[in-house]
Amino acid sequence: MLIPVINRSTHLLPAYQTAHAAGMDVRAYLPEPVTLRPLQRALIPTGLFMEIPEGYEVQVRPRSGLAYKHGIGIVNSPGTIDADYRGELKVLLVNLSDEEFVVQDGERIAQLVVARHETAVWQEAATLSETTRGAGGYGSTGVN
C-alpha cells in the first residue's frame, strides 16, 4: 500500500524495524529538546503530513521500549489519524515515571500501524440477541 507523505522534518520516513513488525517507528522533529516532568504531557511534532486512503486509519501507539525503560506512554492510546486529516502528525506523550525524561530531536517516540476499518451505521432495536456472557462487564469473564 502506498501512502503519500510530505516530510518536513530532517529525519527518515517511519519505517519497520524488523521484517514482521506491524508498527513503523516515527521520530520526534524538535527545534530543541523537550523535557517531560513526571505526569506531564506534551504534543511532540514529527514534521509528517499524510494522505491516508479512504477506509483506513493510522493508529499511533506507544513504543514498548520507552514505556518499559522510561515510563513514557501516549495519553490517547491508540490514537487515530483519520483519512481526511491533512495536518501534521503530532504525538501526545505522557511521562508516567517519577523522573524527568528528555525527548530529543530524531528520537523514536511512537509507532504507527496502518489499519483497515469499516464505516458503521447504527440500527436502533428494541431487543438484542442473548449470549452466555449477557451484560457481564468488567472482570465478569475471569475465574474466581
TrEMBL record:
<feature type="domain" description="dUTPase-like">
    <location>
        <begin position="13"/>
        <end position="142"/>
    </location>
</feature>
<dbReference type="GO" id="GO:0046081">
    <property type="term" value="P:dUTP catabolic process"/>
</dbReference>
<keyword id="KW-0378">Hydrolase</keyword>
<keyword id="KW-0546">Nucleotide metabolism</keyword>
<dbReference type="InterPro" id="IPR033704">
    <property type="entry name" value="dUTPase_trimeric"/>
</dbReference>
<keyword id="KW-0460">Magnesium</keyword>
<feature type="binding site">
    <location>
        <begin position="63"/>
        <end position="65"/>
    </location>
    <ligand>
        <name>substrate</name>
    </ligand>
</feature>
<dbReference type="GO" id="GO:0006226">
    <property type="term" value="P:dUMP biosynthetic process"/>
</dbReference>
<dbReference type="InterPro" id="IPR029054">
    <property type="entry name" value="dUTPase-like"/>
</dbReference>
<feature type="binding site">
    <location>
        <begin position="80"/>
        <end position="82"/>
    </location>
    <ligand>
        <name>substrate</name>
    </ligand>
</feature>
<dbReference type="GO" id="GO:0000287">
    <property type="term" value="F:magnesium ion binding"/>
</dbReference>
<dbReference type="InterPro" id="IPR036157">
    <property type="entry name" value="dUTPase-like_sf"/>
</dbReference>
<dbReference type="InterPro" id="IPR008181">
    <property type="entry name" value="dUTPase"/>
</dbReference>
<comment type="function">
    <text>This enzyme is involved in nucleotide metabolism: it produces dUMP, the immediate precursor of thymidine nucleotides and it decreases the intracellular concentration of dUTP so that uracil cannot be incorporated into DNA.</text>
</comment>
<dbReference type="GO" id="GO:0004170">
    <property type="term" value="F:dUTP diphosphatase activity"/>
</dbReference>
<keyword id="KW-0479">Metal-binding</keyword>
<comment type="pathway">
    <text>Pyrimidine metabolism; dUMP biosynthesis; dUMP from dCTP (dUTP route): step 2/2.</text>
</comment>
<comment type="similarity">
    <text>Belongs to the dUTPase family.</text>
</comment>
<protein>
    <recommendedName>
        <fullName>Deoxyuridine 5'-triphosphate nucleotidohydrolase</fullName>
        <ecNumber>3.6.1.23</ecNumber>
    </recommendedName>
</protein>
<dbReference type="Pfam" id="PF00692">
    <property type="entry name" value="dUTPase"/>
</dbReference>
<feature type="binding site">
    <location>
        <position position="76"/>
    </location>
    <ligand>
        <name>substrate</name>
    </ligand>
</feature>
